[in-house]
Write a structure and sequence with these properties.
Elements (H helix, E strand, L loop, with lengths): L3 E7 L6 H15 L2 H8 L6 E8 L5 E10 L2 H11 L12 H13 L8 E7 L9 H10 L3 E6 L15 H9 L16 H14 L24 H13 L4
Parallel strand pairs: 1-2, 1-4, 4-5
Antiparallel strand pairs: 2-3
Helix pairs in contact: 1-3, 1-7, 2-7, 4-5
């Protein structure tokens, strides 16, 4: 088995019902695309283990498709059909940390021997529920798991006020981790199926998007500190402003 890959899909209420449907169709189209199937067939073992669940708050994780062996077009199409069998329903809050921990537990139980273990996590806002996301990320990476991100930098849904303009940076600094980890941002829903397809191909091959030349001059750079608790702070501010219950 070349890779055991968990697709962790955000269904928080900051996404509209239309966006949730686009997301589900986009995953199905990408998984069953000839390009993704070809990437699987060209792997060292020619097969991967794949599963999908939806997440929102720290206690919401709904299985969509259980662990499945994918090695040809018919396997991929069968998985895609299961993705499309029901609909997504928005849930309160956003717990990326909860999604990572759930995905890590699923990878610990994968019924196949895989050379790599990868979490593919999508979302349109920062963590605002459960434990800090960096705690979950660091724990998963320490256990040999790679976390890749698909930040959805779109606007829509009732919780748009919880979005941040640099979600791609947040995912890079606070969510993703491990060897070959990467982030592919989506700024328009029309980009979504292609972004998922590109991401799956890279994950199956254990590669990263080409972004920099192979030879980089030696240099020392220091990034400004990034506040990985930005989502929690936005939630507390909104709660205090509108007198929400904790």
């Amino acid at each position: 088995m070349d890779v055991a890959l968990v697709l962790a899909v955000d269904v928080s209420r900051s996404m509209s019902p239309e966006e949730l449907q686009i997301q589900r169709k986009g995953y199905a189209a990408a998984i069953s695309s000839p390009e993704v199937v070809q990437a699987i067939e060209l792997g060292a073992h020619g097969r991967i283990a794949l599963m999908m669940f939806e997440w929102a708050n720290d206690t919401h994780a709904r299985l969509i498709v259980d662990w499945s062996l994918i090695e040809d077009q018919s396997d991929a199409e069968r998985f895609a059909e299961q993705v499309l069998e029901d609909s997504s329903f928005g849930q309160r809050r956003t717990s990326i940390s909860g999604a990572i921990r759930r995905a890590a537990s699923l990878l610990a139980e994968v019924p196949y021997d895989a050379g790599r273990r990868v979490i593919d996590i999508s979302g349109d806002g920062p963590n605002n529920h459960g434990s800090p996301v960096t705690f979950a990320r660091d724990e998963a990476v320490a256990n040999g798991i790679v976390i890749n991100g698909l930040p959805l930098m779109t606007r829509g849904g009732v919780g748009f006020q919880f979005n941040i303009p640099d979600l791609d940076v947040y995912y890079r600094r606070c969510v993703t981790g491990g060897p070959t980890s990467f982030v592919i941002p989506v700024t328009d829903w029309e980009q979504f199926p292609d972004a998922v397809r590109r991401k799956l191909i890279l994950e199956i091959g254990g590669r990263t998007p080409p972004a920099q030349p192979r030879i980089i001059p030696a240099q020392i750079t220091f990034e400004e500190p990034y506040d990985c608790l930005v989502g929690e702070k936005i939630w507390r501010r909104m709660r205090d402003q509108y007198f929400w219950d904790p």
